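Our preliminary data section would be incomplete without showing what the modeling component actually yields. Below, a chain of 96 amino acids is followed by its predicted structure, encoded as tokens that our downstream tools consume directly.
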Amino acid sequence: MAEEPEEPIRFGAEFGPYRSSRSSGVSLSTFKTLVWTSNVGGLILMVIGLELLIVTRAYTWAMFCFVAGVAIALFPSNYEIVGMEQDETQSESDSE
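Predicted structure:
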């Protein structure tokens, strides 16, 4: 009687290329909202960084804003989108 190993519950289960059966992921509309919000936030931090760099010559804070802006802009790429997989029944009917 071999028992199937249970998938562990981990923090941020929707992150990464493989989604476990317990994680739900996010819908496409939620993903789009995350992308727009993070891109605007990243752009604002880049503008603040340029302002610090050019006007006040605070190079350390400018570099911090640049790195934080890129990190914030790339954040949604970690999410798994639900509902984008191709249905097996649809793929079978398309191949006939």
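The chain is about 55% helix and 0% strand. The CA atoms of residues 49 and 63 lie 7 Å apart. Preliminary results of this kind motivate Aim 1 of the renewal.
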